[in-house]
Amino acid sequence: MKITFLGTDTCIPSRGNDTASYLINDELLVDVGWNVTGNLRNLGIDVTSVRHLLFTHMHHDHIISFPSLIFHWTQTPPGRDVSPLTIYGPNETLERAFDGVLAFLQADRFWPNLKRPTLVPLAEQDTFETETLSVTCIPSDHAVPGRCYRIVDKRDGTVLGMSGDTAYGPTLAPIFKDCDLLIHEFSGGLGNVRGLPSKHSSAIDAATVASEAGAKRLAIVHGPLSAREKCLAAVAEIYNGELLRPEPLMSIEL
């Protein structure tokens, strides 16, 4: 499995970075940060070659360049045809988010005959497949409806766990069990964020989940990168697996 980190930062990313978003096997885009089209093009990837878009949840920093992605499709020959794209996300909010994109772009005015993408609302414990991937979800515990994902490469069985934004809880370890890599948020840094209404995780929470799940590798993202080394040191006291330090536009193979 190939994983490209398009961004690893918090909701207001530092220069040269983007908020947490990823490309899996060059076919599944997970969340869209501030500059998804620019990030893909900087990697030499044709934006319209990515036919699957998956959202963890619909907070602004995870969907902020959703309109620019759809606009790019409308301007690419043959144009006005977004039908090859399939978009997955929480069933409570996916359609509303896409309708908001169309309203922002004034699609009814400029492209009344727009060929729309396929929307696949994901309920609890739904699954879907792409050409190379099999994806399973459970609900996250966040301030808005969200999903955590277990992504399996059908070719070699490698497993990626993605927490999205979520508070720590007992349902996380089972879906991430024995994964080859767990990508887990640490928005709370080294603080104790359990029970707070924002419903995020700390670095300690990420380490705890990785340990409970038996994850082989752990990458903490979407947290205070200025404190990442201190957070990793604290994580290493709990989690015995390999710790990754992903950088923006970096690709790894599992």
Number of strands: 14
For the biggest β-sheet, the strand order reads: 6-5-4-3-2-1-14
> What shape does the CA trace take?
globular
* CATH homologous superfamily heading: Ribonuclease Z/Hydroxyacylglutathione hydrolase-like
| SSE pattern | EEEHEHHEHHEEEEEHEHEHEE
Structural features, described:
Helix 8 links the parallel strand 12 (217-221) and strand 13. Helices cover 23% and strands 25% of the residues. The strands form 2 sheets. It has a 7-stranded mixed beta sheet, with helices on one face. It has a single domain (2-253), classed as 4-Layer Sandwich (Metallo-beta-lactamase, Chain A), CATH 3.60.15. The protein has helices at residues 36-42, 60-63, 66-74, 94-104, 107-110, 172-175, 203-213, 228-236; strands at residues 2-7, 21-24, 28-30, 52-54, 86-90, 118-122, 127-129, 133-139, 147-153, 159-162, 181-185, 217-221, 242-244, 250-253. The chain is α/β, with parallel strands linked by helices and 254 residues long. Helix 7 (203-213) packs parallel to helix 8 (228-236). 43% of the residues are buried.
